[in-house]
Specification:
By secondary structure, the protein is α+β, with helices and mostly antiparallel strands. The protein has helices at 27-36, 39-47, 80-89, 117-133, 147-152, 170-177, 188-197, 203-221; strands at residues 4-10, 13-19, 93-95, 98-101, 104-105, 107-113, 136-142, 158-164, 224-228, 231-237. It has a 5-stranded mixed β-sheet. Strands 3-4-5 form a 3-stranded antiparallel β-sheet, with no helix packed on it.
Length: 258
């Protein structure tokens, strides 16, 4: 299209591998998935064909450019051997390609919606990564129209999904890490930390407290594996003023014009 330009920014979003603790109840299995993920490889599949790169995000509640951002992702990570140690410490033993415990194979299903080749590519890459660890992943294919129903009803083991990120992490910390919002799975200690956090008046102090809650929850319960924030591309006529990616800034419609 003639006389246009692409205005680029970062999407206010954090996503990756989201595990359903009500279905994947073995915390050792969840921790092994998070530890064994090669997030760089999955991000490469996600952004293939786009003129876009980013550093791996390590928080679900803060964008990397936020003054409150900290690395909350559990360590070690991207390690097949460390993931296998987690399984073995929990009583799993290798039988052929996969680990098993009490006669049950270490495995679960990743839900994929629609026929988008990028989503299929992520699922196939993820399946191979987990096979290298010793976890069997089945691909649970559904139509795009089923996305809201399946995720809304928690009718999945693992999904490639995520959430919007705001400038303040108070509400998202409660949403992600409070036990009542996760089928009761969590800890009284973390619930108490969340309750205390919400009473902190100072914005910086409260958001830094959110980071400590996230670090503790990710390390202990491993529901969420962050992989991408992603791009926000807007294509506009070159002469359109004051419109495009804006991060946390509210759009002043009175200032948009030619």
């Amino acid at each position: 299209v003639a006389n246009i330009e692409i205005r680029r920014g970062s999407r206010l979003f954090s996503g990756g591998v989201t595990m359903n603790p009500a279905r994947m109840q073995d915390v050792a299995l969840r921790r092994a998935v998070v530890t064994g993920l090669n997030r760089e490889a999955l991000a490469k599949v996600r952004f293939q064909g786009l003129d876009y790169e980013e550093k791996l995000p390590n928080s679900m509640i803060h964008m990397p450019f936020s003054p409150y951002y900290q690395d909350s992702y559990p360590t070690p990570n991207n390690s097949v051997s460390e993931a296998q140690k987690i399984l073995e410490a929990a009583g799993y033993t290798k039988n052929g390609d996969y680990y098993e415990k009490d006669g049950t194979k270490a495995g679960c299903a990743v839900v994929v919606f629609g026929d988008d080749p990028t989503n299929k590519g992520k699922a196939q890459t993820f399946t191979q990564q987990m096979k290298d660890v010793g976890i069997e992943i089945r691909i649970d294919q559904h139509a795009d129209s089923e996305f809201a129903t399946i995720l809304g009803n928690w009718d999945y083991d693992i999904s490639f999904s995520g959430y919007s990120v705001s400038a303040d992490a108070t509400e998202s910390t409660k949403q992600f890490y409070y036990s009542e919002n996760n089928e009761g799975i969590g800890s009284k200690e973390i619930d108490a930390l969340i309750a205390a956090m919400t009473l902190i008046e100072d914005d910086k102090e409260r958001n830094l407290a959110c980071n400590e809650i996230e670090k503790k929850h990710m390390a202990e319960f491993a529901f969420l594996g962050t992989i991408t924030n992603g791009p926000d591309f807007v294509m506009v006529k070159k002469t359109l003023a004051n419109y495009g990616p804006r991060l946390y800034k509210s759009m002043d419609w009175a200032a948009v014009g030619w």
